[in-house]
Amino acid sequence: MKRQRVIVAVWKEKLTFTQSVSASKAIVRMTEKQEWPFEVAIAPNPFSYAGVADVVRGAPIRLCSQNVLWKAESGSYIGETTIEMLLEFGCNYIIVGHSERRLHFNETNDMIANRALAAINAGIRPILCIGDTAEDKEANRSREAITGQLRSFFEKLPGSVSHQDFLIAYEPVWAISTWRSGKLPPGQEVQELHAHLRELIGEIRTPDFADRVSLLYGGSVAPENAEEYMAQKDVDGALVGGASKTPESFIGTLQAGRLGFQNKV
Ligand code: PGA
Questions:
Q1: Helices 17-31 & 49-56, crossing angle to 10 degrees?
Q2: Model confidence at 74, in pLDDT bands (50, 70, 90)?
């Protein structure tokens, strides 16, 4: 079974245009001439996207958008990014349903599924983020929370969509950007939730389909823990936020992730 493996630098709105261009140049330089058992991708902010696209052209670095409009055509949707715009620069992945979009911009499961479908229809793979909040965890309903988010995505997904047309990222909201404060799920806990998601996808589609869906983990992935997370059986890659802010710590995360993939259980 071969699943898509990818580690994405998710810069959110933390780097300016100049910083994004300079960081992407450093990433190209620091990753070239090395073998990576996964794809390396960068998700810059929309304003820096074109600049980063210019830098990575010709290098084996993939481009990832942080969001996309759910309508196929560009038009009167102020503040949004459209597929048409992304296609001009090349785009391999689009993050949809990130918890910060759900929390600060009131994005619903429905909206998120529509964004994912727009990406799929354009031949770009969405990375659907799902995750439990601190309250969910406290109340022991983490599985329920991610089950609901996953089901509502699959309800909208046409039967013709294949396992390679999308990826899922499990991101516990309580573990986002917390690695310095130590609130992190152990690798085993991440593995259990990923196995739960795979089983669920197997029930919705088929076990064979589920076996081929790529499941990423996101939440404080860093040089110190990427090996442990990537070594888990059902973890196929990562979304890296805070630790991708400097090229050095992103490369450290990639290197640790590579060890994890090599030692996968
Ligand atoms: P983090 O962010 O690595 O800073 O926790 C990950 C994310 O929000 O996708």
A1: 20
A2: confident
Q: Which domains does the chain have, with CATH numbers?
A: 6-262 (3.20.20.70)
Write out the two tokens for 195: 């196995």
Output the CA 171–ligand 1 centroid distance in Å. Answer: 8
Q: Is the pLDDT of residue 193 over 70?
A: yes
Q: How far is the CA of 170 from the centre of ligand 1 (A)?
A: 11
Ligand 1 atom at shortest distance from the alpha carbon of 10: 9
List the one residue out of 168, 167, 172, 169 whose CA is nearest residue 184.
172
Measured between alpha carbons, how far is 47 from 134 in angstroms, rounded to an integer?
32
Read off the tokens for 227. 């090996």
CA atoms of 85 and 91, how far apart (whole Å) = 10
> What is the value of pTM for the model shown?
0.97
Averaged over 14-35, what is the pLDDT?
Answer: 96
Taken in order 120, 205, 213, 178, the sign of the CA dihedral is positive
The mean pLDDT of 75-88, rounded to a whole number, is 92
Ligand 1 proximity of 219 Cβ (cutoff 6 Å): yes
Q: What percent of the chain is modeled with pLDDT above 90?
A: 93
